[in-house]
Specification:
The protein starts with a helix and ends with a helix. With about 325 residues, it is of the alpha/beta class. Helix 1 packs antiparallel against helix 2. It has 2 domains: about 140 residues, Periplasmic binding protein-like II (D-Maltodextrin-Binding Protein, domain 2, 3-Layer(aba) Sandwich), CATH 3.40.190; about 100 residues, D-Maltodextrin-Binding Protein, domain 2 (3-Layer(aba) Sandwich), CATH 3.40.190.10. The longest helix has 18 residues. Helix 9 links the parallel strand 6 and strand 7. It has 14 helices and 11 strands. The chain is globular.
Length: about 325
């Protein structure tokens, strides 16, 4: 029932991209209600009934022929420092090369939009995208969601505040300087905006001290709050937890004030033009990752996961509904 309601809203907003604010608000409430019932599409039942990724033989014929490509190109949204990301992706690239039998190149991009454009234009074959950037890509080109981490079915954002600001709860961000991450970030913008509007009745476009700041990355948001450039901000909970555990946050200056309800987020996304057997072998590389395997552990640690699970297009319908209701996806 909730799926029908959410899909009806998505279809209505697709058909009328300039829908009135009131109509968008109504759809926001429908989607929010559906999220409350189904945990943003990430219930335990969903974990238990994991779909099987279909293997489709590409136009190039056999697996041997399909893998004669000179190079496989991958990228990921730069949700943290791009230079650091390239270094940290190295173990993953090495593992993919071994499993696919062809060279794999990690292609750094400057921002979230560039990752989406690179995939849509065929400049990369696979991209690690957030929920919103995946939705953007599927509205621009023919793409296929492959796998996500176990944590991506129950993902969270966190709200943090400068201790000097005196903010101890989300209500306190009203009238203060606030930072999101990238404009196209699911966990750093779309979902925090959604929860501010629909759970806390705070309008980011009207209720802050000036327009919200976009830091461009989750770690940058932390540093803006820590330095006092803004009073509060929202970011990916996984990044926050890692920065805290690595001692990269001054907790005498910054504190966590709220964790959002769960939603579905990151996913490896492929161009549909990539041969089906290549897509299947790419996905299987991640599905076979074993935390007890010394070669696999660095890849899992970098991604903050214990395992990967298959993803389907319907996993991201709720995210698309939020994006359309908020006006972030036309």
């Amino acid at each position: 029932m909730h799926t029908v309601a959410v899909n009806s809203c998505i279809r209505a907003l697709r058909a009328t991209p300039n829908a009135a604010r009131a109509d968008r608000s109504t759809c926001s409430l429908v989607i929010a209600a559906a999220f409350a019932l189904i945990g943003l599409g990430c219930s335990d039942k969903n974990d238990q009934q994991v779909p099987v990724i279909p293997v489709v033989v590409g136009s190039s014929g056999s697996a041997t022929a399909a893998l004669k490509a000179k190079k496989i190109r991958v990228t990921g949204i730069p949700d943290e420092n791009p230079t650091e990301l390239a270094r940290e992706y190295a173990p993953m690239v090495e593992l993919l090369e071994a499993n696919l039998g062809v060279p794999v190149e990690y292609v750094p991009v400057t921002d979230y939009g560039a990752a989406v454009q690179a995939l849509a234009a065929g400049k990369v074959d696979f991209a690690w995208l957030g929920g919103f950037t995946h939705v953007q890509s599927r509205n621009m080109a023919d793409v296929v969601p492959l796998v996500m981490r176990d944590i991506d079915r129950q993902f969270h954002s966190v709200f943090i505040a400068s201790k000097k600001s005196g903010i101890t709860e989300v209500a306190g961000v009203k009238g203060k300087k606030f930072a999101f991450g990238s404009k196209s970030s699911t966990s750093g913008h779309l979902m925090p905006r959604h929860f501010l509007l629909n759970k806390h009745r705070i309008d980011p476009d009207r209720d802050f001290d000036g327009a919200p700041v976009f830091s461009g990355a989750h770690d940058a948001t932390v540093k803006m709050v820590e330095s006092g450039k803004v009073d509060a901000g929202a970011l990916n909970m996984q990044v926050w937890d890692r920065m805290v555990s690595e001692g990269k946050v001054d907790l005498s200056k910054t504190s966590l004030i709220w964790k959002t309800p769960p939603y579905v987020d990151y996913v490896w996304t492929a161009r549909a033009a990539v041969a089906g057997d290549v897509r299947a072998r790419f996905a299987q590389t991640f599905l076979d990752l074993d935390p007890a395997n010394a070669r696999h552990r660095p890849v899992l640690d970098r991604m903050g996961a214990e395992k990967y699970v298959p993803a389907t297009s319907t996993d991201f319908d709720a995210i698309e509904g939020v994006a359309r209701a908020s006006g972030m996806l036309k």
